[in-house]
Amino acid sequence: MFEDATxxxxxxxxxxxxxxxxxxxxTRLQAMHRHLSRESVRLRFFTAFRELSVGMAHKFAxxxxxxxxxxxxxxxxxxxxxxxxRYEESAPRVAEVAFVMDDAYQGRGIGTVLLQIIADCARxxxxxxxxxxxxxxxxxxxxxxxxSGFPTTITTDRDMRVITMQIAESPAPL
Length: 174
Prior knowledge:
By secondary structure, this protein is of the alpha+beta class. The chain has five helices and eight strands.
């Protein structure tokens, strides 16, 4: 199972680090949220709010890495969080997955790698299916799921898309 940090070199040569979230990340999560554009917050939470409450930050940063897991992204040599991906059990062997990435780091391939790490962790913990809900207009996020290599279905529910990925096996090569 994922234990250590993963280094990811982006196309422009910048390196980011993906690691397990820790309880001491609460204030860094709040700082990241304040730095997000209103649009990024709306696309992730389906509403725009400027502050991530202390309670939400506490919940998000304190996970058991079994029923709930989260991984954060930071620039190399920086403590600042620029992205986070997580899963939370929603039914037996099913977990809901969600991501948010700082605007400057969107569209750079980080979400694709983060999804693989989350799926590996979830699979190790007995999950077979990941689900997600995204706004229909969030084409980049939908593409991350669609292009994941996992058997994926996307259904329409008004202005939302419901994504279901079967993760029992490792994904097909991209």
